[in-house]
Design brief:
With 600 residues, the chain is an alpha/beta fold. The protein is built from 19 helices and 19 strands. The strands form four sheets. The chain has a six-stranded mixed beta sheet.
Length: 600
């Protein structure tokens, strides 16, 4: 019996378009003789739909679309479609109004529904807000032969599987194996329940967001589970970008020994067809190579995230500020690879403090990438602001307010270009800057998407070096083959905002290798200041960084969505109050930020 896995890239709320994607996959699967097609979690509405689920019309249209899709699907293939269904007992029991479900569509009708049992409510997940957990172990019987009389596509002389008992799980349902994790986060384990039911195969419809190295964890976990329960597992994962989340696909299958038998491509839509043999196991199929290099993996994720954000939000072109610095250089390269160099405009906005080499570096980068540029000197506007504010600022010294005016002038110019030509403004700030507030509200934070908002500064350098090391490999980078994509001087020079003569980032911040390690420990690993100090860091520096992170919360709340690539990003899953007096303590005496540190 052949089973197909559709690795889909749905657009949230595009019900008709998502139904067409499922239909196209089903037609392809049927042409290859598949009896069952797996789609991904909430494949019909897209994941995560969030508060669209509170709109009655959305739910009604979703149900109607599913039933129309059932009538349109090829009758010879059963399809598991991710959808949402009402909870009929919600009013009586006080439960949540909906189920996160999978509909089994067969012969023109929705035969039954299976409900997700484990509902994640952590980090970017908030499923308990909407859904009631399913209570039953989900399985169904699938006949191996086509059910249509006179169907000649099946050779009766060949051995076949008469029927399969297939267990159905949805994403988190497979993430509670106590034997693998050493703990149990939910009271029940759907995988063990299905194994006890004697299923022949477990399938999983998933929408598991990307983070660096996550695919290796998925495969290790399910390899362990398949071998322990002696049940083959087929895992279908969503692909594509939806707002700040990126889904990598990487769907795969394991036999009952826990051996990998197929893997779909990463960061691309795909369709895989595998054979379930009469001996009761999944036969080997095509195994797409895994990406072993973290930099390549992150690059592909960011390119996909930008491409889908632009496309799904209805933009065709993008604009960004080109400073000649490493952050804007990387973002320009990502944008060019994502939507085509011809669709990217870089704006140079030199001030009296901009160095000649920064301007030239920006122009050299644009030439290597093939993007268009335009230059708007901001000195006249700086003079106008100085003159307008002179009476109010009289008797004060030049400081952060005047420095940040330059950034705000640039932000205003970029937004004007965005408004005039309908271009998406992509911000260029990195995670290190967002963490400590080394960014300017209504200035360099302006924009519709933060392409590298979850990329630490040290990783920005790694990615640029990786790009140059692969600058001849257009098939890997998606960019023109040149000697060096990022001008060497961009990587070599000390980072600077160039808001005053001789300014360097390290005048206000620890060196980025130290800063990023402290931030990783504090933000991502949840270490206390004392733990970080015990890890070898200067107590005074640790205390400074923690204070900067804490007081920058109001900026992060006003930032554009930023693509998530780590386990802990400043986005959907970051829920820290702004008006907040809590400050983690350390052994160090209180310190204050140096005066050069921008406040707003």
């Amino acid at each position: 019996m052949k089973i197909a896995i559709a690795q889909l890239n749905p657009t949230i709320g595009d019900l008709a378009g998502n139904a067409q994607r499922i239909l196209d996959a089903a037609v392809q699967a049927a042409a290859q003789g598949a009896r069952l097609l797996l789609t991904t979690e909430l494949s019909l509405c897209g994941y995560p739909p969030r508060d669209l689920l509170m709109q009655p019309e959305f739910l009604t249209t979703l149900a109607n679309t599913l039933h129309q899709l059932a009538r349109d699907l090829p009758p010879q293939v059963a399809v598991l479609v991710g959808t949402v269904v009402p909870n009929p007992d919600a009013a009586r029991s006080g439960g949540k109004p909906l189920f996160n479900s999978t509909g089994l569509v067969q012969n023109g009708t929705v035969r039954c529904y299976f409900h997700k049992r484990l509902l994640p409510t952590y980090d970017v997940f908030d499923e308990d807000r909407y859904f009631e957990p399913g209570r039953d172990a989900n399985w169904f019987l699938l006949n191996g032969l086509m059910e249509q009389p006179g169907d000649e596509s099946v050779d009766a002389s060949l051995p076949h599987v008469s029927s399969l008992k297939i267990g159905v799980t949805i994403c988190e349902d497979l993430w509670n194996d106590e034997a693998f994790w050493g703990k149990r986060n939910y009271p029940n384990n759907p995988l063990e329940d299905l194994a006890a039911q004697g299923v022949d195969l477990i399938v999983n419809l998933s929408a598991s967001p990307y983070s660096v190295g996550k695919q290796a964890i998925r495969e290790d976990m399910l390899r362990h589970s398949a071998a322990r329960c002696r049940v083959p597992i087929l895992y279908a994962n969503q692909v594509g970008g939806n707002d700040d989340l990126i889904f990598d696909g990487s769907s795969f299958g394991l036999n009952r020994e826990g051996e990998l038998v197929f893997r779909c491509r990463e960061f691309e839509t795909d369709l895989a067809v595998v054979e379930f043999d009469p001996a009761g196991d999944v036969q080997p199929g095509a195994i797409a190579p895994s990406i072993e290099d973290d930099n390549q993996e992150i690059w592909m994720a960011l390119v996909l995230g930008v491409r889908d954000y632009v496309r799904k939000c209805g933009f065709k072109t993008a604009v960004l500020g080109l400073s000649g610095g490493i952050d804007s250089s990387l973002v320009a390269a990502i944008a060019a690879a994502a939507i085509g160099a011809e669709n990217v405009l870089g704006i140079l906005m030199p001030s009296p403090y901009s160095s000649d080499h920064s301007i030239q570096d920006a122009l050299d980068l644009a030439k290597q990438l093939g993007i268009r540029t335009h230059t708007v000197p901001i000195q006249p506007m700086m003079a106008g602001f100085d003159e307008a504010l002179a009476p109010l600022f009289a008797g004060t010294e030049f400081g952060v307010a005047e420095e940040n005016l330059q950034s705000r002038i640039r932000g205003t110019l970029l937004m004007a270009v965005s408004n005039k030509f309908g271009q998406l403004l992509i911000t260029t700030g990195n995670k290190s800057e967002m963490a400590v507030g080394y960014c300017t509200l209504y200035g360099d934070m302006n924009g519709g998407l933060g392409a590298i908002a979850d990329v630490p500064k040290t990783r920005v350098y790694d990615l640029c070096r990786w790009l140059n090391a692969h600058s001849q490999a257009s098939d890997i980078t998606g960019l023109p083959a040149v000697s060096e994509l990022i001008p060497p001087n961009v990587i070599a020079k000390p980072p600077s905002a160039e808001l005053k003569p001789g300014q360097l980032d390290q005048d206000s911040l620890p060196s980025y290798d130290i800063l990023d390690d402290i931030l990783a420990r504090f933000v991502e690993q949840h270490q206390s200041p004392s733990d970080i100090v015990a890890g070898g860091h200067d107590p005074n520096v640790v205390n400074l960084v923690v204070r900067l992170v804490t007081r920058a919360e109001f900026k992060r709340k006003q930032a554009p969505p930023g693509l998530k690539i780590t386990d802990r990003a400043f986005g959907t899953g970051w829920r820290v109050p702004i008006a907040n007096r809590w400050l983690p303590t350390s052994a160090a005496a209180p310190v204050t930020a140096p005066p050069e540190m921008p406040v707003v």
